[in-house]
Amino acid sequence: MLEWLNTHIAYWHWLVLGLLLVTAEIFVSGFVLFWFGIAALFMGALLLLVGMPIALQLLLWAGLSIALVLLWLKFIKPNWKDRTTSGMAMEALTGQVGSVIESNIGKPRGRLRFPAPILGEDEWQFMSTSEIAIGERVTVVNISGNTLVVSPR
């Protein structure tokens, strides 16, 4: 079997496999097949330059695929997280914690800032039944129009 593969597998087989795997990523969630496809495309390009036995090809493809998946999971995927809540339901805003940057003492409303933008904004007006000083942390308990209803933590 290996003899047959050594004589019949050409660089374009790897390129076709790579394109199929990258295309299949459209239909599968997880973004894993993509890296196996990239590794196959790399193997196809490498075979254009250097001939090698099928066993070494498979070993390099598997090693490169695993390395790319690990790099994806360790370094790239954590930075791709959507840290905004844009597009989420209003109920998703309840429970968010922010810091007061403009007190509501003596005023009906104050201003707070979240560590990450919520619905595209990191600063929001708030109202509360209690007076909250600058620097205190508050939790969103409800939303009234464009104003957050908060309670002190």
Automatic annotation (TrEMBL):
Protein name in the entry: NfeD family protein
Record-linked SUPFAM superfamilies: NfeD domain-like
Coiled-coil portions: none
Subcellular location: Membrane
Domain NfeD-like C-terminal: 91-152
Keywords from the UniProt entry: Membrane, Transmembrane, Transmembrane helix
Gene3D superfamilies recorded: Nucleic acid-binding proteins
One GO cellular component term noted in the UniProt record for this chain: plasma membrane
Family matches, as InterPro entries: Membrane_assoc_protease (IPR052165), NA-bd_OB-fold (IPR012340), NfeD-like_C (IPR002810)
Upper taxonomic lineage: Bacteria, Pseudomonadati, Pseudomonadota, Gammaproteobacteria, Cellvibrionales
Transmembrane segments: 12-36, 42-73
Topological category with respect to the lipid bilayer: Multi-pass membrane protein
One Pfam family named in its UniProt record: NfeD
Principal cellular location given in the protein's record: membrane
